[in-house]
Design brief:
The complex is a heterodimer. By secondary structure, chain A is of the alpha/beta class. In chain A, about 35% of the residues lie in helices and about 20% in strands. In chain A, the strands form 5 sheets. A 6-stranded parallel β-sheet of chain A has the order 5-4-6-7-9-8. A 6-stranded parallel β-sheet of chain A has the order 13-12-11-14-15-16, sandwiched between helices. Chain A has a 6-stranded parallel β-sheet with strand order 18-17-19-20-22-21, sandwiched between helices. In chain A, α2 (about 45-55) links the parallel β4 and β5. The chains are: A alpha/beta, B alpha+beta.
Chain lengths: ~575, ~180
Amino acid sequence: METKTIANSNTIQKATERISGSEAIVRCLIEEGVKIIYGYPGGAIMPVYDELYKYQDKIHHVLTRHEQGATHAAQGFARISGDVGVAIATSGPGATNLITGIADAQIDSTPMVCITGQVPSHLLGSDAFQETDIVGISTPVTKWNCQVTNAADIPGAIAKAFFIAKSGRPGPVLVDITKDAQFEEFDFVYDRCEKIRSYNPIPKTEAGTLEQAAQLINNAKKPFIVWGQGVILSEAEEVFKALVEKAGIPAAWTILGASAIPTSHHLNVGMLGMHGNYAPNKLTNECDVLIAIGMRFDDRVTGDLSKYAKQAKVIHFEIDPAEINKNVKADVAVLGDAKSTLKAILPLINPNSHVEWHQQFKDLYEIEYHKVIKNDIHPTKEGLTMGEVIHEINLQSKGEAAIVTDVGQHQMIACRYADFNITKSNITSGGLGTMGFGLPAAIGAKMAAPEREVVSISGDGGYQMTIQELGTIFQQKAAVKVVVLNNEFLGMVRQWQQLFFDKRYASTEMINPDFIKIAEGYYLKARKVVKRADLKDAVKEMMESKAPYFLEVCVEKEGNVFPMVPSGASVADIRLE
Amino acid sequence: MSSNTKQLYTVSIYTENNIGLLNRISAIFQRRHINIESLNTSPSEIEGVSKFTVVVDVTEVDIQKIIGQIEKQVEVIKAYYHNLEDIIYQISGLFKIKSELLFEERQIQNIIKESNARIVTVNKDFFVLEKSGKKEEIMELYNKLSVFGIMQYTRSGLIAVTKEEMRISTLLQNYNH
């Protein structure tokens, strides 16, 4: 920004410029370092699009095929980069179409700024064309939102939006801007927001809690770490790994925590929760100290809370005080940003190795391997499994691809079996479970990190919820590798129907179109695999492709995901079959 | 009282004065399917800081979680919960009654005197009584007057100050270190 120093004064006053509200919106984004935004034009946001046309050398606007796709792309962008994703839409249906992505970002703590156009302020509340109360509608699913009706308020609102989205526990924010405010001219000056008086993004670590936590950890016989996305969001991967190694504690992850330390790390004992690994679920109820780091004890992780880790002392490292004692009572709550609290506790931790305790995890892994894993990734029966596809992708990507998944069986299989050697590599809809998330999120991820291999893995159900984003892939030449694991069912629901509803397959069978023709219709290279013998070569061709590539793999129709903690059961009652 | 028994709690929320914040706060109760018994918003002792006073019938376990979710809202400075013993509170009731009753039913004059109610206005058609106090006191007056017929009745939300000190100004300074 242009600045000038006023003579005989210590204060620096920024020069102002008279510009329109819509130009100011674009200038604010540039000031925040935004280079890519995702959106869809329409009446009430047209002045902003006119400015985006003028500033196209500074900001690349990606036209998605649906506003929901714009939010998921912005989420994928944010998840792989750690930067704020930006989505933009018009009023009314444009704005309401953002809601699913906003709700997803809220529950998965993804930094995202959404900007919506709104009808002119004199029409507010009059049921005007494409008017909807998007501030009211988005309130329960945003970290913060506001409506702007004067151009002069735009820079302040957008500065606040970026600060709130990114700071503390990240989340989505929405700024709704009336069309008259977009047209209005004012004296523009931009100051980034650095604090808000009512907002305390990183709570102070209470005195003594680090020492108490360290003492519990040092005295523990069977300590167990469960970590979540907080480790990734605070970029604490390095110190986290140092802690795990120094203390020699087996560590397991929630699906959003995946990839914070490599899958192959000897103390990484796998995935928690409903379809997680056998050992970490079982042994949750045998540890003596449970150390939760940047995770929120979601019900998919804990199962029946009344039977969850009751024998253990619980230490909870957490940035959001509202998560303390929400689901699981913490004996010691270490508030703060994971990176700084882990750094602070590391010197207090005694070097240790819990060989016998760790062996218990390995023993249970062996059981799981023979009952489940072996059959999933090295099947001998006819019929391709989802697991062997993931395994083949691992082999050919050397575990360095970012895996973007949708929701359902393929998601659980991908999270279970994908090798994550690089952090921020598991991009999936965790808390909200949004089918249709994967494909657009992969576009955002690929555009944020073009140097990385990005593989989108979907089922045939979720894929068709946002299939139109193939158009975005084609138009943007985003070299996403799109894999559809087609079992001609809404597989996870079908699995539940099989197990808990006497095989009454109500509305879960899918009569699918020719996915190859559809992909080819969008000018994508496409290949279909129905035989095991062709899998390796097809995955190779896909991984070697410099262009976007579509791979359909027809997998067995009635495969199930195991292990499984049945809904409402204790983690200790995890089933292997 | 056990932390798992429902009781009336007063929630005092110090906030910025912004459009939409009421919606954001009420949504926290709504998503847990909790009915708001009473609600009042007003300026607080600090310039530019608003105060919400919400009364809900919940367990202590729940109110603690709700307080956490309220406090995490960006524009909320601080939220507290108290049971009715820890606060000094008042509720106001307004009664509109036919003026002729004032002269025909001598009993009404006694009721007004005994209840410490105040006559706000009188004209030839009706008079308006105001009574502040606890809910029970207002209900008692209501029950006595309803025998004679009440033209209109309304009761305000509960407003309260706490017995303990609230360090909002200190908090605000700390946030801006």
